[in-house]
Design brief:
Layout (H helix, E strand, L loop, with lengths): L1 E4 L18 E2 L9 H8 L16 H10 L12 E5 L6 H16 L14 E4 L6 H10 L16 E7 L19 E6 L15 E3 L4 H6 L5 H9 L2 E4 L5 H12 L5 H15 L9 H12 L4 H7 L6 H11 L3 E5 L2 E8 L9 H11 L4 E9 L3 H10 L5 H12 L1 E9 L8 H6 L4 E3 L2 E7 L6 H15 L17 E2 L4 H11 L3 E5 L5 E6 H9 L15 E2 L6 H11 L3 E5 L5 E6 H8 L6
Parallel strand pairs: 3-4, 3-5, 5-6, 6-8, 10-11, 15-16
Antiparallel strand pairs: 1-9, 2-18, 7-8, 9-10, 11-12, 12-14, 13-14, 16-17, 19-20
Helix pairs in contact: 3-7, 3-8, 7-8, 7-9, 8-9, 8-10, 11-12, 13-14, 17-18
């Protein structure tokens, strides 16, 4: 089915094409069905003996699970840990530096010693909010990052605190309350706050809190900055373009290799604060750190997907004009957008970058930009002729004809979501070319081949390449570890420990989906000695989807609802599968190890 709409500006890449049928809140109390219906329902999900999952849960299976986990040690209700804070409204550099420091402390404790067999975990905490571009990245990578919330960490459990890309205590929000009880505080920054700005013209400072240099470096800071810098056990302020660079250098020196998604985030952090290595604060160290991350397996596709380029004022004017006239077609779940800019002047340079911006701002999978212009070069030749006082009427007539010849430049861009779209093949038909996800062509128009005709025909060729979209049933997990509504807090905790779960669907004896259970809720109940059963702790207002929910709708729910797992239920509410963030990332093939 093809629907046509007029676009409004959005800064999110993964696009909502959702319908209300994709949302199912399990609020209703289920009524047991007949034996025949129950038998049919429980055959919809497979269970393998090797994984010991409880996809088709029965009372007998639940008893077996409880017997298998009785010998496990009791769950730990306190967790000694280290914490790294980003600054409030975290940008890519702050998040990347925090993850890098967390990775460093995973292998070497804050004092620089190698971690023992009993490692203390390090969590990254976002004090308050993130930039929109960072929020989009976190929405799809949260399960791959060491992120934790304030409520999941006890103040008395925190050993060391790291603060990145900030020197003022007010920049870490509620984290200020944890500074006084921490055993050590470590601050990493590339800004010189003593000059009251965010440039890198300050002096390099690497000291401990008792050093006089540390005091001198913070003499002119405000009180909040003094509090953090003077409390710091380790204070590192260096003249580089990105804080991430400082931590990447330490990872490299320690011989610690990041995973591809971590290396990708580090690249995004360095690029963000160096403007892609073009800001005047960029140093050779930033370039070397960026290269090292690329060599460690950073995904260029993901960098292109989540990194946002900046446009100069002239191109931004073209961008604003284009946003007023876009046309979007949703075809088989894929958003295809086109725009025609009618210009009577010479060709405008930099339209490729404009097209890339439009691709993200319109939440499109494919964007086709058409811009009309007259023949290039003729105006310059005519000016040169006038400068030499030439007066050849025949040449003037020929040049006037060239000046009135109309051309249309076609520029196409596609995201990794559009895996089957080949823009090179489309625009090669018009004498152009490029890459599957980035191509261009220049077409000379005439009375019958108008700019509108060229754009429409190229747009139709793109539509013909769009395959039928994926739905949840085509890639969901059929074997799902579940918890019964009648399980106790202790038995559920042991089950979570056995399978290393953070959350799990809750079902009744007939395998109807009843809600979702979070590990933190279980731990809090255990600390209070709460004797409740699972049905008293579960969250019944969970978001569920149907087996025929499209991939684009699943992406929209994960991004907007803040969930990482979407239970798949049939029309009767029986749990038949599960879709996770990892399952969705696999469909886009961004990383080799996922």
């Amino acid at each position: 089915t093809t629907t046509t709409t007029t676009t409004s500006c959005n800064s999110f890449l993964f696009h909502p094409s959702s319908s209300s049928s994709a949302l199912h809140a399990s609020k209703k109390k289920r009524t047991p069905k007949s034996t025949a219906t129950t038998t049919k329902s429980t055959t919809t999900t497979t269970t393998t003996a090797t994984t010991s999952t409880t996809s088709t849960s029965t009372a007998k299976n639940n008893n077996n699970n409880n017997n298998n986990i009785e010998d496990l040690p009791p769950p730990i209700l306190s967790e000694p840990c280290n914490v790294v804070f980003t600054h409030t409204n975290a940008d890519f550099d702050s998040l990347a530096a925090a993850v890098a420091l967390s990775l460093l402390w995973t292998h070497k404790d804050p004092s620089g010693q190698r971690q023992t067999s009993q490692k203390i975990p390090t969590h990254v905490v976002l004090p308050r909010g993130t930039h929109p571009v960072v929020q989009r990245f976190v929405a799809f990578h949260k399960h791959l990052l060491p992120l934790r919330g304030f409520k999941t960490i006890q103040k008395q459990d925190v050993h060391a605190i790291g603060v990145v890309d900030a020197q003022g205590a007010n920049r870490i929000g509620r984290g200020q309350a944890w500074l006084e009880t921490a055993r050590s505080i470590h601050v990493f920054d590339h800004h010189d706050d003593s000059n009251h700005n965010n440039n890198n013209n300050g002096n390099t400072t690497t000291t401990n809190s008792s050093s006089s240099s540390s005091t001198e470096a913070s003499e002119n800071n405000n009180n909040n900055t003094n509090t953090l810098t003077q409390m710091a056990t380790e204070l590192v302020i260096d003249k580089v373009g990105s804080t991430t660079t400082l931590l990447v250098e330490r990872l490299k020196e320690a011989g610690i290799h990041p995973a591809p998604h971590e290396a990708t985030l580090f690249c995004l952090g360095i690029r963000a604060d160096t403007g892609g290595l073009v800001y005047d604060s960029t140093t050779l160290r930033d370039a070397r750190a960026l290269l090292w991350c690329m060599e460690r397996g950073a995904s260029q596709s993901a960098i292109s997907e989540f990194g946002v380029p900046r446009l100069p004022p002239e191109q931004r004017q073209v961008l604003n004009a284009a946003l007023q006239n876009t046309r979007t077609v949703t075809h088989n779940g894929m958003r295809l957008t086109s725009v025609l800019l009618q210009e009577e002047s010479d060709y405008v340079a930099g339209l490729a970058q404009v097209c890339e911006e439009l691709l993200g701002l319109t939440d499109s999978d494919v964007f086709l930009l058409g811009a009309t212009h007259t023949s290039s070069g003729s105006k310059r030749r005519r000016r040169k002729k006038n400068d030499h006082h030439q007066d050849d009427d025949d040449d003037d007539d020929d040049q006037n004809h060239q000046r009135t010849t109309q051309w249309i430049s076609l520029i196409g861009r596609a995201t990794v979501n559009a895996a089957d779209i080949n823009l090179n093949a489309v625009l090669s038909e018009w004498g152009g070319g490029g890459h599957p996800k980035a191509a261009a062509a220049a077409v000379r128009c005439n009375a019958t081949l108008t700019p509108q005709t060229v754009l429409e025909q190229a747009f139709q060729s793109i539509q013909q390449q769009v395959p039928e979209q994926l739905v949840a049933s085509s890639f969901m997990r059929h074997s799902v570890t579940t918890v019964s509504t009648e399980d106790t807090v202790q038995s559920a905790l042991k089950l979570f420990q056995q399978y290393d779960l953070k959350s799990a669907p809750v079902v009744d004896i007939q395998h109807y989906f009843m809600g979702s259970l979070k590990l933190n809720d279980l731990v809090q109940a255990a600390r209070r000695g709460n004797p409740l059963k699972v049905k008293g702790l579960m969250r019944s207002k969970a978001v569920t989807v149907l087996p025929d929910t499209s991939l684009t709708e699943l992406e929209y729910l994960i991004q907007t609802k803040g969930v990482g797992r979407l239970p798949v239920v049939d029309d009767d509410g029986v749990l038949v599968g599960l879709v996770t963030r990892t399952d969705i990332l696999r469909q886009h093939r961004l990383y080799d190890d996922i």
